Every structure is written in structure tokens, then in C-alpha cells.
Recover the amino acids of this structure.
């Protein structure tokens, strides 16, 4: 199993980023996918989740209305579109496949002026 996150970077408050997570080594379309994030000194937290077919999504209250999770099962990729970014969104973002015990290396998102 391999999960490769990308798309992070430095962005000003109010800006946007689109994260991608390319998955391999398992049957992607059978698993719900989740984005997590971990800020310095804090525990890893769930950000957004999407069902295997993409028909159901769930968001942390802190990102509702600003972030959108989506997936492309033909490309084995899950996305996180982030708008109206705030300094408190600064973290390393990770994706995870259902209950599988695998993590990627994460992608750093820094929101700062």
C-alpha cells in the first residue's frame, strides 16, 4: 500500500490550495478515504472523509463550508480543495484508506502572511 500526498505549500490567509493523494497497492474504489491533519504540538485530527463511491462526505466543523473532499476512482486519487485558508489550518495533511493501517509522508500546508 502506498499513499502519496502532494499539493501543499505556503499560502496567504484567504488563499486556496488543492491537495492530492495518489493511492496504490489496494483496491481504491472499495475504501472510504479520509484526510487528516496534524499541527505542531497537537494530535492528528480528522478533516474530511468520503465514502467509497463518493456519494457521502463528512467534514470537521472547523472546515465546513471551506474545504471540499472528492475522489476519482479511475485515477485512484482523492482530493482536498481548500478555500479561505486560515493560519490555524497550518499542519501536515495526510490521507488514509478506510481502516488500513498505512500513512503517507504527508504534505505541509502553511498559511501565513
Amino acid at each position: 500500500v502506498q499513499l502519496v500526498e502532494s499539493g501543499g505549500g505556503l499560502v496567504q490567509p484567504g488563499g486556496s490550495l488543492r491537495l492530492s493523494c495518489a493511492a496504490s497497492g489496494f483496491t481504491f474504489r472499495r475504501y472510504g478515504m479520509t484526510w487528516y491533519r496534524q499541527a505542531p504540538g497537537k494530535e492528528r485530527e480528522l478533516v474530511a472523509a468520503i465514502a467509497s463511491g463518493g456519494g457521502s462526505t463528512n467534514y470537521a466543523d472547523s472546515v465546513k463550508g471551506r474545504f471540499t473532499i472528492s475522489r476519482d476512482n479511475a485515477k485512484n486519487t482523492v482530493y482536498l480543495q481548500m478555500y479561505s485558508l486560515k493560519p490555524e489550518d497550518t499542519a501536515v495533511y495526510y490521507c488514509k484508506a478506510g481502516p488500513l493501517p498505512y500513512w503517507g509522508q504527508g504534505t505541509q500546508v502553511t498559511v501565513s502572511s
